[in-house]
Amino acid sequence: RIRHSPATMPSEAEPRSPSRANADDASADVAEGAMARRRASLDGKVLVGGEGQDYIAATLSRADDVAAAMERVRKHGALLDADTEPVLGLLSALGVKRGEAYREMLERAVAELTRRAPTLPQGTLLSLLDASFPYIGIEELKAVPLTVFAHMTPVPSSYLKQVSRDMGMFRQLPVEVQRQCWVKDAALLRRHVSPSMMAYGEETEAVRMNMNQDMTLAELNASDDWSPTSAARGTSDGGAGGAKSRKALRTESASVNRLRNIIGTTKNSMNPSLYIEVIRLCRAHFANSGDDSACSLRSQLLMSYHDAGENELCSMDKCHRLAWLMDACIRDRYLDGRRLKEMGSLIDNAVKKAKSKTVKKPTKTKPTRFRIVGFGAKKAEAKKDGNESDDGGSISRVHDVHERDDTLEQVPGDMGMILQDPPVLHLLLHETIRTLEAVIEAEGVPKKEPRLHDLTKFICLALTSQACLRENFSEVPATPEPIVKDFYTLLGKLMLDVMLRDNDDDMETDGAHEPDIDVETRGKFKELMIWSPAIRKIMLTYALICLQRNNIRTATEVLEIAADVLIDDVIIYEGAFALTLANRMSTMLKKKQTTVDSALWKYAVDGILIRSTSASLEVHEEVLRMLMLAADELTTEALATAVEATLINTKKSRKQRKKRAKQIVYEYEPIDTSKHARHGSSHNFGATADVHGIAASSTSAASVDSIRAACELFASTKKLSKESAPILFDWLNKRSKCANDGDNAGIAGTGGYFDDEGDEGGSILDFGLSRDVKSPSVVRDSPLMSPRRA
Q1: Distance between CA 664 and CA 29 in Å, rounded?
Q2: What percent of the chain has pLDDT over 90?
Q3: What confidence score (pLDDT) does residue 153 get?
Q4: What is the pLDDT of residue 377?
Q5: 617-629 and 575-590 are packed helices; what angle lies between their axes, rounded to 10 degrees?
Q6: Number of other CB atoms surrounding residue 714 within 10 Å
Q7: Cβ count near 66 (within 10 Å)
Q8: What distance lies between CA 297 and its chain's CA centroid?
Q9: How far is Cα 259 from Cα 158, in angstroms, rounded to an integer?
Q10: Could you tell me which of 529, 768, 512 has the C-alpha nearest to residue 659?
Q11: What is the DSSP string of 337-401?
């Protein structure tokens, strides 16, 4: 500081002389004139970004004197206020370069502007957005328009359209602005929702829960309206078999959390219309592909908002109460009489309410090639040749996401999606078997048991939910009479014979014995299982329960019928049953409860499991693991035939799944692929496989590398050689060569599985939302049975 003596202290009241005042005014006029000339020379341009680069390039390329041109560029790019030049000169003398000074001023100005933005009125923010938006692509200036976006409500649609076209810029927008873009553009929302819908069906824990058809039910008191016993009330198990509970699964699910981030919550500007659109996309995905993981995602997403206390949003969804009820039943492992009655009233009331709001008069449904045989129709209507499609029918039109209906859900199709959530459907199947056994034990008549009627109704609704969505049905499909009248009578008689045999303490053997099912009854079972998917699933569940109880005789006879019924076009829909059966057979082999020479092995493994490997990677790997356990007991020829048969049976499905073997891209929020690697038809493609743990581990996630490692493990055994298993060794050599040559470039780890030539391309975002794209690997348990081929 400079101290001034009183004598030298400048006096503020000292008047200026007229000559001095005139000189100051003249200098100011000169400065303003110079600034005006500079502005005019720029033609209103601000020399930043691409515009500044173009100006510099044009000026230097046309100049005869480059040094003079550079000086001219420097002057045009300098600050307009001439008083800054002396300050910049002083800073330069102190060692601060002009560029550094400019950057510091810019950073401080941007920081001050963004600090004031929250307090500015909406009109001022709009003016600031108009001035700053042209420079949103410049890294140093983009903070200004982005800050304005965050504090404007709403953002003008013209700006939303522009930023949504640039995905790099869209990722940087505040999520509140992203939601405004999704509300305005349904196609953009679909692009960002589709990857999460696809990825959920490939998540390890989701696959593990959906593919496990084994279940140990809690005890119920049949004489007291099927109420839970005191022991059952205190034994809730949301994660049976060591798996995580459904609540823990949805809390940790990356896909569910991404969809919640898109929709939002009450605390961070939730938009209910986005929830409606996401649910519609789930419906469209399931209606077109039949992927039951879409049903699971639809239920889990709704329950995640229930867990978060979003009551207002949940109340919008008519499926909320049903989803909550089924979630509680899976947690408690039983479906008592009270809950079953509540399920019926919920569905019936929702359907009646939706019909009362419908303005259009009901029209007769036109015939389509998607009609379901065995649901809501008489058995005699089925075509004798086994072809279940109507001749000359038109393709049904799926409800489009852009359409708006008066209700949030398509009832009853939406209710059916909740029931076709795999754990829910498996619970219904197990409860049906338990109920029928209790009726037979009490010497009752199955067709007069109301509980059986209700359970059958819900199973049929679940399996016809895809058709209901396709055809936009407004009624709950009627329960086919032959299921209750004929099938339950036959199955009840079989159960009675088993009970009588057990009461007589007949020793269970795996050798020659009198069959539990005679030839005539066997033919009736086969005919009914071909006719109705519901009957088929109930019978397959009964076979698993018999194996669980070590009733090998009955299970063998049921599996013998199933081996004839499950043709190649049908077996791809029974992936959960096949995986559970393979697990059960592996357990029995370890406990020495069966051998490879038994009838059970003949029908379960040779008749079903070897062919079921085409259903999914999980089934393929589990069957290979089971064969590894039985390798010592099998002959060289039998082992080579079985292993090579899995490769032959999966050749067609590998070609079909190759289109899906692409990294799922999360356009608005990339994820850590090391933790959530999701590709193609199954999860964890390219994951490092534990070769030594394949035979021992039963919980490892299926992957391409683990299947290839299993085949290499078979090849490394002394039992198999190039002469005994030429197809296996040829496949492994081909895969090794392709891997070295960079086959399937860009898809890590897929060279060992997707080895068949076929059409490349096909967008991952289009899968499941276009009926032209089909893949048996994900269309599990679809009620739409394709035309049978002998």
Answers
A1: 64
A2: 41
A3: 83
A4: 44
A5: 20
A6: 24
A7: 11
A8: 6
A9: 26
A10: 768
A11: HHHHHHHHHHHHHHHHHHHHH--SPP-PPPPBTTPPTTSSS-GGGS-TTS--SPTTPBPPPPPPT
Q: What is the DSSP string of 515-530?
A: -SS-HHHHHHHHHHHH
Beta bridge partner(s), residue 769: none
* Distance from C-alpha of 28 to C-alpha of 12, rounded to nearest angstrom: 21
- The CA distance from 235 to 464, in Å, is 33
Q: Kindly state the greatest CA–CA separation across the chain.
A: 130
Take residue 386 and report the two structure tokens written for it: 């086994």
Q: Give Cα separations from 386 to 146, 317, 531, 589, 756 (angstroms).
A: 62, 39, 8, 37, 32
> What phi and psi, each to the nearest 5 degrees, are found at residue 368?
-135, 165
Q: Which of 163, 155, 104, 115 is nearest to 137 (CA)?
A: 163
> In this predicted structure, what is the pLDDT of residue 299?
96
CA atoms within 13 A on the CB side of 110: 19
The structure tokens 């589709």 sit at 194
Q: What is the 3-state secondary structure (H, E, C) of 228-253?
A: ECHHHHCCCCCCHHHCCCHHHHHHHC
CB 713 within 8 A of CB 694: yes
8 A C-beta contact, residue 200 and residue 292: no
Q: Report which DSSP code applies to 448.
A: G
**Eight-state DSSP code of residue 754:** -
Q: Which of 399, 425, 412 is nearest to 781 (CA)?
A: 425
Nearest 10 degrees: Cα torsion 371, 375, 379, 380: -30
Cis amide leading into 533 (omega within 30) = no
Cα angle for residues 579, 581, 586 (degrees, 5° grid): 95
- Please report how many Cα atoms fall inside a 13 Å half-sphere around the Cα of residue 426, on the Cβ side: 25
Alpha-carbon distance 318 to 346, whole Å? 9
- Please report the DSSP string for 121-174 in residue order: -HHHHHHHHHHHGGGTTSTTTTHHHHHHHHH-SSPPHHHHHHHHH-HHHHHHS-
d(CA 102, CA 98): 6
Under 8 Å between Cβ of 294 and 421: no
CB-based contacts of 763, cutoff 8 Å, min separation 6: none
Instruction: Tell me which long-range contacts 229-235 makes (C-beta under 8 A, separation of at least 24).
Output: 232/332, 232/333, 232/334, 235/333
206 CB-contact burial (10 Å; exposed 0-12 / middle 13-18 / buried 19+): buried
Q: Which amino acid is at 620?
A: H
Beta-bridge mates of residue 678? 683
SS3 31: helix
Distance in angstroms (rounded) separating the CA atoms of residues 663 and 765: 11
Residue 591: exposure state from Cβ atoms within 10 A (0-12, 13-18, ≥19)? exposed
Do 298 and 418 meet the contact criterion of CB atoms below 8 Å apart? yes
154-193 burial: b if 16+ Cβ within 10 Å, else e: ebeeebbeebbeeeebbeebbebbbbbbbbebeebbbbbb
Whether residue 238 contacts residue 246, with contact meaning beta carbons closer than 8 Å, is answered with yes
- pLDDT computed for residue 392 by the predictor: 32
Q: What angle do CA 735, 738, 742 make, to 5 degrees?
A: 140
Q: Calculate ∠ Cα 717-721-724, nearest 5°.
A: 125
> What CA–CA distance (Å, rounded) separates 405 from 414?
13
Question: Tokens for 699?
Answer: 């919980």
Q: Which residues of the chain have pLDDT under 70?
A: 1-45, 232, 234-243, 358-409, 504-513, 654-705, 737-790
Q: Which tokens belong to 233? A: 């009330």
Number of Cβ within 10 Å of residue 608's Cβ equals 24
Tokens for 217? 């039910």
- In the structure encoding, which two tokens stand for residue 488, read together? 């339950």
Residues 6+ apart with CB under 8 A from 512: none
